[in-house]
């Protein structure tokens, strides 16, 4: 099996190709899949999305739709190295500040919240819905330290699927992965 660093390079190329070929159309289709999953939840549910970097699948179509039907949305805030993420409310048109590593986040006057559902970017995912990220551990640390009971779903192009990823003790599986082709659920329950 390839190392995580080797897999990251391969996954980044695959995601880039999927983004080039399917970008906006896939993001709109994934939005429909996500709404089938989230749309029936109580409107007091806070959904944490992410602001896409580079070739990450764009969840802003989903965010707009969630807002239009009455959900509140939030974005993550990186507050420091080796710390869990914090979340602040954000809606389309609200100001964004620059963060570390190419991220953007809601301004510091946006209310801090504890979301009920996380939608998470990734480089690759496997049959058990483990994800390969950039290696900073922010989402794994967040799930472990702040939200062990939260529903966490990846959002990715179907082409980002791999049979199995290497796992370390700090890696957390997702409840599923939202793709343009449908919802991928973990093989193991």
TrEMBL record:
Positions of transmembrane segments: none
Keywords: ATP-binding, Magnesium, Metal-binding, Nucleotide-binding
Record flagged with keyword Nucleotide-binding: yes
Residues that, per the record, bind ATP: 4-8, 131-139
Chemical reaction(s) catalysed: (6S)-5-formyl-5,6,7,8-tetrahydrofolate + ATP = (6R)-5,10-methenyltetrahydrofolate + ADP + phosphate
EC number: 6.3.3.2
Name of the protein in question: 5-formyltetrahydrofolate cyclo-ligase
A GO term, aspect molecular function: metal ion binding
One Gene Ontology biological process: folic acid-containing compound biosynthetic process
NCBIfam families membership: MTHFS_bact
Gene3D superfamilies tied to this protein: NagB/RpiA/CoA transferase-like
Cofactor(s) named in the record: Mg(2+)
Enzyme superclass (EC): ligase
Family recorded in the similarity comment: Belongs to the 5-formyltetrahydrofolate cyclo-ligase family.
């Amino acid at each position: 099996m390839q190392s995580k660093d080797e897999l990251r390079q391969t996954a980044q190329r695959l995601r880039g190709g999927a983004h080039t070929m399917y970008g906006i159309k896939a993001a709109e289709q994934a939005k429909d899949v996500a709404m089938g999953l989230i749309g029936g939840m109580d409107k007091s549910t806070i959904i944490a999305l992410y602001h896409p970097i580079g070739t990450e699948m764009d969840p802003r179509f989903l965010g707009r739709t969630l807002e239009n039907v009455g959900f509140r949305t939030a974005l993550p805030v990186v507050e420091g190295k080796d710390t869990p993420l914090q979340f602040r409310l954000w809606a389309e048109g609200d100001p964004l500040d620059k963060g570390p590593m190419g991220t953007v986040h809601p301004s510091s006057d946006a209310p801090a919240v504890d979301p009920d559902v996380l939608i998470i970017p990734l480089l690759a995912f496997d049959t058990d819905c483990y994800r390969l990220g950039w290696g900073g551990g922010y989402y794994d640390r967040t799930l472990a330290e702040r939200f062990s009971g939260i529903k966490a779903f990846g959002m990715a192009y179907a082409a980002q699927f791999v049979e199995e990823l290497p796992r370390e003790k700090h890696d957390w599986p997702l409840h599923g992965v939202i793709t343009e082709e449908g919802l991928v659920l973990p093989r193991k329950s």
